[in-house]
Amino acid sequence: FVGQPTIVIFYLGFGCLHCVEQLHAFSPRAAEFKNAGIQLMGISSEDVESLNSGLASFGSEALHIPLHSDAQLTAFKAYRCFDDFEQQPLHGTFLLDAHGRVLWQDIGYDPFMDVDFLLKESQRLLALPRD
Predict the structure, then answer these.
(1) Contacts of 127 (CB under 8 A, 6+ apart)
(2) pLDDT surpasses 80 at 60
């Protein structure tokens, strides 16, 4: 994804119903983001085995978002999707430009669900002139 604008979705795994709903909301729209020049990527707090098991539970319904495991929470912590007081990962959705700069973010206890807003806002932010 280097050199491409990317939406990164930090999610807590397939055991989190809200996270599964978020993936179900974004996945069918992946082609619209791609047509806008924006890639989608998910990062799970699960280990690889749990991630693969969760993917298998989708059955014939394919996810159109590449998913990655971050069981050590390295990326979660680097992007501040971690509650240091509660010692738990948080949901996070980010728009990164082609240089990896964060242009927009939403971090919290609930996943970001407004796909239409994020597509339009991503296009708007990416069209702005940068230094």
Answers:
(1) none
(2) no
81, 60 Cβ separation under 8 angstroms: no
Own/partner long-range contacts of 122-131 (Cβ < 8 Å, ≥24 apart):
122/5, 122/7, 122/33, 122/36, 122/38, 122/95, 123/36, 123/38, 125/95, 125/97, 126/5, 126/37, 126/38, 126/95, 126/97, 130/97
- Show the CA angle centred on residue 41, arms to residues 33 and 20, nearest 5°: 95
The answer to pTM > 0.90 is: yes
